[in-house]
């Protein structure tokens, strides 16, 4: 329990430094700053693998699945890469939400900060629930596996490309509870006019981001549970991936068109972990295979996006 408290305390310190020190004043986060912070978060997350090794070798953390220190590190890194790769899809949706509500770049970091704080709390609850289910009901792993395969199929068909936040169920429900103003007044989530409190576009974007993250958690939590059911590895890898989501958003959202094949990488990853769950009781794959499949899928998607030109671009060059 002490290790969990220390880890959560460390996360809260990171968040406090982020909002209270490094981003105390609202400013537009440019690519150079986003690249630097993305490198910092990835370095912290990968460096934490050393802490995982130490914790599992010293016995300071509960080890219900009987992992060796080396295997624990491999599972942590694999889980982290899965969460990081699935976060890319989250970036696409966040970009659509900000664009739909015309949220200025100046205030996007503040919305993401509170959105990620809420995501951390919800992910923690979802992880505990998911681990408890797998430990109590062996057959639930097959349900998770089928769900991931279905998600991969939906992503392959591109059924989520027409997402419109202003037509969503969430937006309609918020309008029933609070009056909504189209005016953005600084970083405020609510404004008061003539005695009436109205929600600003920043608050609407925050609510939709929070609830869409719940939907993404339904994919990401089963995906990492296919790698390990150890609660601390699942929680730490998931949370450290989420902490880097803000800087990754400001970096990747500006390059969405360049990485047009990355969705196929996510399809491969989701399909792989789904099949791994379905055959988990028949086939036990070495952890390095999972790590290799995830890494190769991501690299292949990025390389294909950079090397293969779009049809319009090819036609334009030929003419």
UniProtKB/TrEMBL annotation:
This is TerC family protein. InterPro entries: Integral_membrane_TerC, Integral_membrane_TerC_rswitch. PANTHER family: MEMBRANE BOUND PREDICTED REDOX MODULATOR, THYLAKOID MEMBRANE PROTEIN TERC, CHLOROPLASTIC. It comes from the Bacteria. The keyword Transmembrane helix applies. It is found in: Membrane. GO terms for cellular component: membrane. Belongs to the TerC family. Keywords: Membrane, Transmembrane, Transmembrane helix. It comes from Pelagihabitans pacificus. The chain crosses the membrane at residues 6-22, 34-56, 76-99, 111-133, 139-156, 202-226, 232-252, 264-283, 289-308. It is a multi-pass membrane protein.
């Amino acid at each position: 329990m002490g290790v969990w408290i220390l880890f959560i305390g460390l996360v809260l310190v990171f968040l406090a430094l982020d909002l209270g020190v490094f981003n105390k004043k609202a400013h537009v986060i440019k690519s150079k700053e986003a690249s630097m912070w993305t490198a910092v978060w990835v370095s912290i997350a990968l460096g934490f693998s050393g802490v995982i090794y130490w914790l599992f070798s010293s016995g300071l953390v509960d080890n219900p699945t009987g992992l060796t220190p080396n295997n624990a590190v491999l599972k942590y890194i694999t889980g982290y890469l899965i969460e990081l790769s699935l976060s890319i899809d989250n970036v696409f949706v966040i970009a659509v939400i900000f664009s739909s509500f015309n949220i200025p770049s100046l205030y996007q970091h503040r919305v993401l900060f509170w959105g990620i704080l809420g995501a951390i709390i919800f992910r923690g609850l979802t992880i505990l629930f998911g681990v408890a289910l797998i430990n109590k009901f062996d057959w639930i792993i097959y349900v998770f596996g089928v769900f991931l395969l279905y998600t991969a199929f939906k992503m392959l068909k591109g059924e989520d490309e027409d997402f419109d936040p202003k037509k969503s169920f969430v937006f309609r429900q918020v309008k029933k509870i609070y009056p909504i103003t189209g005016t953005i007044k600084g970083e405020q989530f609510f404004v008061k006019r003539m005695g009436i409190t109205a929600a600003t576009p920043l608050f609407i974007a925050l609510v939709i981001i929070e609830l869409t993250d719940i939907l993404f958690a339904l994919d990401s939590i089963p995906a990492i549970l296919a790698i390990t059911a150890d609660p601390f590895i699942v929680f730490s890898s998931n949370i450290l991936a989420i902490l880097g989501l803000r800087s990754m958003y400001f970096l990747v959202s500006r390059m969405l068109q360049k990485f047009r094949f990355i969705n196929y990488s996510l399809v491969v990853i989701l399909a792989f972990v789904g099949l791994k769950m379905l055959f988990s009781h028949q086939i036990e794959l070495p952890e390095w295979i999972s790590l290799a499949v995830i890494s190769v899928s991501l690299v292949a998607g990025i390389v294909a996006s950079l090397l293969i030109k779009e049809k319009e671009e090819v036609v334009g060059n030929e003419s």
